[in-house]
Amino acid sequence: MERTTHTEKVKCLIIGSGPAGYTAAIYASRANLAPRLYEGMQPGGQLTTTTDVENFPGYPDGVVGQTLMDDLRRQAERFGADLRFGVATAADLSATPYKVTIDDELCVEADTLIIATGATAKYLGLADEKKYAGMGVSACATCDGFFYRKKVVAVVGGGDTACEEAIYLAGLASKVYLLVRKPFLRASQIMRERVMKHSHIEILFEHNAIGLFGEEGVEGVHLVKRLGEPDETRYDLPIDGFFLAIGHQPNSSIFTPWVETDETGYIITEGNSPRTRVPGVFAAGDVADPHYRQAITAAGSGCKAALEAERYLSAQGAIS
Question: How far apart are CA 111 and CA 73, in angstroms?
Answer without folding.
Answer: 23
